[in-house]
Amino acid sequence: MTVKATGKQWYWSYNYPDNGQIEFDSLMLKEGERKEGQPRLLAVDNEMVVPVNKTVRVITTGADVIHSFAVPSFGIKIDAVPGRINETWFKATREGIYYGQCSELCGKDHAYMPIAVHVVSEQAFAAWLEEAKKKYARDGVVPATNVATAQ
User: Which pTM value belongs to this model?
Assistant: First the structure.
């Protein structure tokens, strides 16, 4: 399966091109938004969700400046460069939430663009996928999320 990660100042957008063009933004949770047990500066509102024991191809790009998609638990770190596509992959063998961060100094809020990958069972992924198709798409078209106007 493929997930496209686009680095933006200062959050990540994820696209699932193999699964109906699902696309959403992932922003760090602010102090009052975190639930019990969610780590400070790493928890996000929308996690990248992938199935366990499946090879996940990650393609990266940058929308504005150079970012770097890094998840140490999977041994991946790859630049997200505007106008270019880079590619890596990982295969998570255990369910759970794995954290990473942008690893390229990309501007004033560089330290506030974490990566959270939620690895789930095949069944849970299928259920998430059905829900995501409803949540992140309207009439078969993915809505364009504009974080700048939402703030």
Answer: 0.89
